[in-house]
Amino acid sequence: MLHLRVVSPAQTTPQVLRLLEAEAGVAHLVLHRGAAVRPAGDVVEADVARECADALLSDLRTLDLDHDGALTLESLDTVLSDSADRAEEAAPGEGSDAVLWDELIARTGEESRLSFSFQAFLTIACLLAAIGAITDSAVLVVGAMVLGPEFGPLAAVAAGLVLRRRDLVRRGGTALAVGFPLGMAITAAATVLFDATGLLVSADLDGLDEVAFIYQVGPFSLIVALLAGVAGTLALTSAKSGSLVGVFISVTTVPAAAFASVAAVEGRWSEAGLSALQLLVNLVGIVVAAAGTLLVARWTGARRDRGRELSAG
């Protein structure tokens, strides 16, 4: 269940109440008249089944409440109520399959910003992956994969393409286009330092059995990227964010970027090129699969909404 709070101008409140009362997936409807101070108005609260929340938000936005008032949603971990149970049973579909598009836009928009923290995490992940490759440590490489923050911008690009939001595409694309080259440049500089201090010699890269997958590009590279894109998008849209860790471990983006820098500094151009290709295949595959998953979700959601309107009529 989700908790919905609406700040509504007094003249709009009757329409808000009618919308909420007509929705079978709503429970615990509460009205606080005159409780809102800025903006002034009434406060309406309700618990809403996740599967009907997106359509309900869309209906409420037609009343211009996102401009004249406010609409907020928060997840409820525990709800002990027969009324809530009945509302969830009456709502069409499954809550875990429902996509809240406004929530998706907010999450991807925030996580795709080219911020200091984003660049710091990406750079540290690249450095860890480089050290993991140099020392042939799969554990360090996997740790770098978990640390990498690149799925946020990738998801933003996919969402922007599906929703035709140029701002999301631009923001996510900028984070990737600036973040990876800068992280790779710093990793290359660190590799030069390792060379100068004797911590690395080119021969160390000859027998990397544990991490050879970084630059071994093949059909499974694309297949894994596509599967990761689908899984990551499902985890993002269904609020099962814990599953994203598995997605991060499965894709070879950060390790490929890091090893491309190390190999280039050491003059191993074939391995550097293959690593760069691995990075490109993974980035493109994730975006394509994520966009396809969102398109399917949008289509099924539209069908569910049409069925809801027909049953209400």
Defining traits:
313 residues, alpha+beta, Alpha-Beta Plaits, 2 domains, four-stranded antiparallel β-sheet, 13 helices
Précis, in short:
By secondary structure, the chain is α+β, with helices and mostly antiparallel strands. The chain is 64% helix and 11% strand.
Q: Layout of helices and strands, plus pairs?
A:
Layout lengths: L1 E7 L4 H10 L3 E12 L2 E9 L1 H12 L3 H4 L1 E6 L6 H9 L10 H11 L4 H19 L3 H10 L3 H13 L2 H31 L22 H19 L6 H7 L3 H12 L3 H44 L1
Antiparallel strand pairs: 1-3, 1-4, 2-3
Q: Find the count of extended strands (DSSP E, 2+ residues).
A: 4
C-alpha geometry: elongated
Helix content: 55-70%
Give the strand order, joined by hyphens, for the main sheet: 2-3-1-4
Keywords: Membrane, Transmembrane, Transmembrane helix
Pfam families: DUF389
InterPro entries: DUF389 (IPR005240)
Folded structure, characterized:
With 313 residues, this protein is α+β, with helices and mostly antiparallel strands. The chain has two domains: 96 residues, Alpha-Beta Plaits (2-Layer Sandwich); 198 residues. It contains 13 helices and four strands. The radius of gyration is 24 Å and the shape is elongated. The model has no long low-confidence stretch (mean pLDDT 88). InterPro entries: DUF389. Keywords: Membrane, Transmembrane, Transmembrane helix. It holds the Pfam family DUF389.
